[in-house]
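INFO  loader      accepted 1 record
INFO  loader      residues=107
INFO  predictor   begin
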Amino acid sequence: MTAKATTSATFEQDVLQADGPVLVDFWAEWCGPCRMVAPVLDEIQNENAGKITILKLNVDENPDLAMKYQITSIPAMKVFQGGEVKTTIIGAKPKFALEQDLAPFLG
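INFO  predictor   done
INFO  writer      dumping tokens
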């Protein structure tokens, strides 16, 4: 996993104040589908460096943010831009489907 982690302590700076779109992957260690989608997100991050930032947020370690953003199932990914949620992606998807969901942010 190459995606950087964010936490309750760094979320505002890492995500809400970021320049450009930030995808936050809400995940947990015990979640099999989360582990399946992680390398796909790493590939997307590597292929789109400078276009989108991908961060991981462990919901078990940061329940306040999971509650704030109404995470009821994982994996859940939210794209933030300008401090606001612009899109939500629920569930593990193949790379091409994630790229389609992220196309507006990848230019």
